[in-house]
Amino acid sequence: MNAEMIRRLGEFSTALLASPEFKDLNALFEQQIAVDVLGTKPDDAVERERIYAMLQGSRAFTSHIERFANDYAILITPVVDTGPDEDDPSVHDISPDESL
User: Fold this and answer.
1) C or N terminus of the chain, fewer CB within 10 Å?
2) Residue boundaries of the structural domains of the chain
3) What is the pLDDT of residues 20-64, one digit of tens each?
4) Long-range pairs for 26-30 at CB < 8 Å and ≥24 separation?
């Protein structure tokens, strides 16, 4: 994956995660999952497992979107230059002993 793809998908992911509509869709989906689980028969464990797997898949996809948004945030964060990297030779074991 290249920086352009991270930028493009990360920007979209950031906007999507911030969207109230996306948040509403996720909340409604999770509510529907709860309704579906409660609507299963007591002996229908296979159906409950299938419904739970859908919930886990949805959450995994949301995490995937969050990773793109996070990678995008890292990509667009400016690197702060702290100035020249000064090295103090007195802290190195390889520095010559000036007391000789």
Assistant:
1) C
2) 3-76
3) 999 999 999 999 999 999 999 999 999 999 999 999 999 999 999
4) 26/58, 26/62, 29/58, 30/55, 30/58
Q: 13: buried, middle or exposed (CB in 10 Å: 19+, 13-18, 0-12)?
A: buried
Structure tokens at 41: 């028969």
pLDDT in tens, 65-100: 999 999 999 999 888 776 666 666 666 666 555 555
Residue type, 100: L
Classified as helix, coil or strand, 100 is coil
Question: What are 80's two structure tokens?
Answer: 């702060």
